[in-house]
Amino acid sequence: MLLQRILMLLIGVVGTAANAASFDCKLARGRLEARVCADSDLTKRDDELAAVYASFLAATGDRRAEKAMQLAWLRIRDACEDDECIQRTYYARIAELQARIASASPIVGYWKIEHSCAHATGVYEERCKKGERDVFMLAIQVDGDRVCIAHLATAQLHNRVDGSDDFEMSMEGNASGSMASVRYRSAWGGTGTATLRVDRNTLRWKVETKDEGRSWIPDAAELRRVPARGYDSLPKCVE
């Protein structure tokens, strides 16, 4: 299929597109590739993603980083246990790339940081060392100069969860180039303002002002761009 063909070109397995053969399902490697080949709907999704991904690569200025992002997405897809999960994962990735193509803003997409164990103590330290992590995630859409964000922040190893229902918009503001200023609303009642600045695949988040109310949103964080997962969707900019 086209998606595997494009990845082979990026990795350097084949030389030129003119001489490369399309993916042959007879040569499918692994459970997931065989599953995609066996289902016509999944094959269509794979080809659709390949076309969108090719358009995105033609417009991006950092192919190396985007190749790594696509490989990370493949690991998410390959962790699926059923066809429904695979379908969701394809749809989410296609929607993500289409949104990034449609907007000139480098802020659009998904961003995440997993916090270290540096400040964990007691039972939290033990669980953290076993691999559990608190996270701060942002799903960002830009419409004109308006930025719309859904957030998820956890604390005490997910004993505290701060986020909007169904990942709906919880922050909004103005975007200009690689920067944005927003007003945020915590699920715990806290509100305030923050700034965002993107440098390649790093987003720097900083809270500028806080109003009264509780919040588990971090004061400052450096988030990395991540690919969409099966249940992810970018927020809609609603009035």
From TrEMBL:
GO terms for cellular component: extracellular region. InterPro entries: Lysozyme_Inhibitor_LprI. Residues 1-20 form the signal peptide. The lineage of its organism: Bacteria, Pseudomonadati, Pseudomonadota, Betaproteobacteria, Burkholderiales. Keywords: Signal. This is DUF1311 domain-containing protein.
